[in-house]
Amino acid sequence: MVSLHAESIVNTVAFPMVLKAALELGVIDTLAAAGNDAWLSPSKIAVSLPTKPTNLEAPVLLDRMLRLLVSHSILKCRVIETEKNGRTGNTQRVYAAEPVCKFFLKDSDGSGSLLSLFLLLHTQVLVKSWTNLKDVILEGKDAFSSAHGMRLFEYIGSDKQFAGLFHKAMSESATMVMKKVLEVYKGFEDVNILVDVGGATGTILGLVTSKYPHIKGVNLDVAQVLTNAPFYPGVEHVSGDMFIEVPKGDAVFMKWILHDWTDEHCGKERSFSQFENLALDSGFVRCEIICLAYSYSVMEFHK
């Protein structure tokens, strides 16, 4: 029904906020840890949460949240018959994790996760930017500056808590994607010096050099980011401005940084043909997609 579709649009905000609450409460971790064959009731899940003793409605409220997550295929649900005082006939819902939950678990083993990235994108800081999206059209300014009076990376330098979550989100999500890249992409085998432009704290190069120890990694980023960069064997952290100069190497690695330039200088992050035009206009002779890592394309620009 069209009216039902319209009502679902009105309540669109509910899904990300409910998922955010479930992640912050550790509900997804609890269900995933229980295993594929374990089905947990809202009451059993609520017992594991630090709820106030006076909040007797916690299981009921949690059940409503979990039902919404089922409708988005985050969780699965079934109804079972229960027995109370020797009498049957009552029913209750029990829940289990769907496969997608594995991408939203706490990164306890260093394999990467989308958890911190999801929480970052739904902080009040970034949600406030969305409320100013119309200013992009009306005034031609970016929504973040309109909301906060400064650019994103300026804000990161002024808010330590947000900066911590930002760098954690970048590191954990990059780890997840890069581990997959290293499974399917063989282009690093013939590289001796690899430069990661805007490589943050060096997570990417650390993964690359751990698989290809013959590679010397050069991690370029601004000084304030490199302050907390850990040591990785074979990786040199270089403080600098990628808009001014990039260290020389056999290959330059770029991931999630083209948005730091204007469209005129980098092309929109959209279609392959636009990337191909960017490559050819910049003096490269060939651009090709080598393989996919999840939904991400590994592309090579050749001179």
Short note summarizing the structure:
By secondary structure, the protein is α/β, with parallel strands linked by helices. It has helices spanning 2-10, 14-25, 27-34, 42-47, 58-71, 115-121, 124-130, 134-138, 143-148, 152-158, 160-184, 203-211, 223-226, 263-266, 272-281; strands at residues 75-84, 87-97, 193-197, 216-221, 235-239, 251-253, 286-293, 296-302.
Topology:
Layout (H helix, E strand, L loop, with lengths): L1 H9 L3 H12 L1 H8 L7 H6 L10 H14 L3 E10 L2 E11 L17 H7 L2 H7 L3 H5 L4 H6 L3 H7 L1 H25 L8 E5 L5 H9 L4 E6 L1 H4 L8 E5 L11 E3 L9 H4 L5 H10 L4 E8 L2 E7 L1
Parallel strand pairs: 3-4, 3-6, 4-5
Antiparallel strand pairs: 1-2, 7-8
Write up what this structure looks like.
Among the domains are: 2-104, Orthogonal Bundle (Arc Repressor Mutant, subunit A); 106-183, no CATH class. Helices cover 44% and strands 18% of the residues. The chain has helices at residues 2-10, 14-25, 27-34, 42-47, 58-71, 115-121, 124-130, 134-138, 143-148, 152-158, 160-184, 203-211, 223-226, 263-266, 272-281; strands at 75-84, 87-97, 193-197, 216-221, 235-239, 251-253, 286-293, 296-302. It is globular. The mean pLDDT is 91.
**Can you say what the CATH homologous superfamily of the domain at 2-104 is?**
Winged helix-like DNA-binding domain superfamily/Winged helix DNA-binding domain
Q: Please provide the ordered H/E string of secondary-structure elements.
A: HHHHHEEHHHHHHEHEHEEHHEE
CATH domain fold name of the domain at 2-104: Arc Repressor Mutant, subunit A
Secondary-structure arrangement, i.e. CATH architecture of the domain at 2-104: Orthogonal Bundle
The biggest sheet amounts to: 4 strands, parallel
> Could you tell me how far the N terminus lies from the C terminus, measured between alpha carbons in angstroms?
55 Å
Gross morphology is globular
The low-pLDDT segments are none
Q: Helix coverage percent of residues?
A: 40-55%
Mean model confidence by pLDDT: 91
Strand content: 15-25%
Strand order of the largest sheet: 5-4-3-6
Strand tally: 8
Q: What's the level 1 CATH class of the domain at 2-104?
A: Mainly Alpha
**What is the radius of gyration?**
23 Å
| Structure annotation, total helices | 15
Structural class: alpha/beta
